Every structure is written in C-alpha cells, then in structure tokens.
C-alpha cells in the first residue's frame, strides 16, 4: 500500500542538490572529526531563495536551530546553509548560541551575502563546545570548494554524515508552465531516529518559483507523510532539521494552490522526501533490512499512522525481523497497545504475501517460506483492521547486535 505516484515527474539519474539551476555545494575536513572525512559543508544559491524549515520537537533544541529559525523568520528567504558534523553544538548554553551565530555571520561574509540569509545546522556529539578555531579556518576555505557539479554535492553529503554508511541523495524533474523544474534533496541520519518531525538533517533544493508560505505548507505536509513515519531506535534528536530552498531560476509562474501544476509539484516534493526517509531507515545503525509497515482499514489516517509507528518502533518486532522469526504475536501486541480503536475480532496480518493471521485468528502458513521471506533485504508487514478507510505507511529497520556496539562507543 505504499503511496502510488502519478507519472507527473521523472527521476534524474545521478542528480543531486546541485542539479537544480543556480545551486552550488561543497565540503572539506576542518578537524571536528577524528577521521579525515569531511566535516564542514555548505549549499549556496546564486540568488536569494524562498525558504521553509521543519524542526525537532525535542525540548532541548540545539543552538543552530535557533539561528536557522531566526534566519528564515526574518523574511522567509535563505541563500545558503552551512552544516558541520562531529559536534551537535547542543546543550552548550550561551557559548554554543554565540558560536552558531558566529558561524552564520562568518560564512555570510565569506560568500558575500546577508547574515540572515544563512541557515546553520550541526550534528554529532551532544554537550561539547565547538572547536571554533577549526570551524573558522574551515569556513574561510569553504567558498573555494563550492561547485555546481556532482562533485560538490558529494563533498557536501560526506560532510554531513556521522554514523551513516551511505550518502543519501535524490533528484526529480517535472514540467511547470512548459519549463523544466528540478527538485533535489540530501539527508543524513542513521541513529536517534524517531521523529516528531524528522530526526535527521535534510536539505531540499529546487529552482521552482514558489513563495515561502506555500513552500512551508508543502514541506510540512510531505514531512508528516515521510520523515515523520520512520523510526530506527525510538530516540528523537536535539538537532533535527529539514530545510528547503526554492530560488525561482526555472522561470515558471509562481506556484500556488490555484496553479494547474501545483499537485504535480507537491507530488514530486513528497517523493523526494519519501526516498530520503526510506534511505535513512534502511541505513539505520547496524541495520540489515528495511522494514515497511502498512496499516489499512483503520478508523482514520491518523489512527493508522499511530498504529504503523507503534509496530515499526517495537523492539520485539524489530528483533524478530532481524532473526527472521515469523512471530506475528509481537505484531498484534504492538497493534493492541497503540492506543487506537481496534476491533479485536477483525485483524489480518501478512508478512509480504504470507497470511499469518485472519480475522484475529491464527492460520496455518509455511514457516520455511516465511523464513526465506524474512531473510530478504526488505520486509513488508501488512495490518488490515477491517474497520474503515484509514491507512498509513511507516518505515524502519531491524534491531541488531551492531546497533548496541555502535552506540555503546559513540563518543570514542
């Protein structure tokens, strides 16, 4: 029951955040990480862009979030976003806030834009002050590394990674007013993934002409259906942020809900967010499988979403998937504790196409067939409540020994 996208756009092979017109990106190693992998990066638009942002709901919000809210809140525009990894700049008090604002102003000066046209994002260890001498040196060298090519995007994507194993990028093309419009995205996320927004850093670039308020509306809607429907470990981070920039260089008429191509643009944006969200779930720390939970027949879409997220977030379900154990009892138990209306007499559960529970009664199924299915890289769990028309999809991963190993030594 994954969302079916109408053929209103096409995927751009090898596309990246620099594929939309007018965007450059880059990254370098400034010394925040112990490895030599890039740890400071940026995306820059050649002109100011309409901007939108969605942020973590964690009470302890990192200093960069305040800076980015401030920047977008000034006039709904951004021209650049500066990101560091290796240090979250969270729970660092007034000094952390001052450091985040200094990052904004120093990078703005380095690329010749207004300070409040720059967003700042950070990811990494919580509770440590930034080594600002290294950050300053990195910022000074970053403008020369900005490229309007896949190389620049690759460098940026490397700069935002923490425990991620792979870079996460996607780009699509659609036609608006007879002109090609591109939407691209990049994200990082592997651990502390249980969004009440999107527990990760995500960046969307587009050359479409659209106002900040309209972009904010679409970004929030897309987030609720994608990034807000993934989980790895049940932890929502202090630094989660999704920022979109639309610079208008495609030359279309401004997109509004009344525009004939509004639905196509909205669908393409949701697709970009869904691809990135699923990539984060698949790259969960220690994960070996992408797990998709489809819930249908619920009292409402919101109810279905709550049930899907409860199932996908269950440590027992995730452990069973890792062990290729067709233990539907763990699934039905998660459904029952989701706090949503459920008729205990009408629930069906499938693992892939294998029916394991019908009308809340166990039925005979081929255990060997189920074992082979659960050994695959993607596992789909379908729960049909047979109550009404509500439906939702959530994504996550299995829970493995490596997850504990990675997080037992995160700071070392």
From TrEMBL:
CDD domains per record: OAT
UniProtKB keywords: Acyltransferase, Amino-acid biosynthesis, Arginine biosynthesis, Autocatalytic cleavage, Cytoplasm, Multifunctional enzyme, Transferase
Listed GO MF terms: L-glutamate N-acetyltransferase activity; L-glutamate N-acetyltransferase activity, acting on acetyl-L-ornithine as donor
Main location: cytoplasm
Organism: Paenibacillus beijingensis
Source domain of life: Bacteria
Family: Belongs to the ArgJ family.
Residues involved in substrate binding: 162, 188, 199, 285, 407, 412
Protein name: Arginine biosynthesis bifunctional protein ArgJ
InterPro entries to which the protein is assigned, alphabetical: Arg_biosynth_ArgJ, ArgJ-like_dom_sf, ArgJ_beta_C
UniProt site (Cleavage): 198-199
Amino-acid biosynthesis in keyword set: yes
Cellular compartment(s): Cytoplasm
Catalytic activity entry: L-glutamate + acetyl-CoA = N-acetyl-L-glutamate + CoA + H(+); N(2)-acetyl-L-ornithine + L-glutamate = N-acetyl-L-glutamate + L-ornithine
Pathway in which the depicted protein is active: Amino-acid biosynthesis; L-arginine biosynthesis; L-ornithine and N-acetyl-L-glutamate from L-glutamate and N(2)-acetyl-L-ornithine (cyclic): step 1/1; Amino-acid biosynthesis; L-arginine biosynthesis; N(2)-acetyl-L-ornithine from L-glutamate: step 1/4
Catalytic machinery residues: 199 (nucleophile)
GO CC, alphabetical: cytoplasm
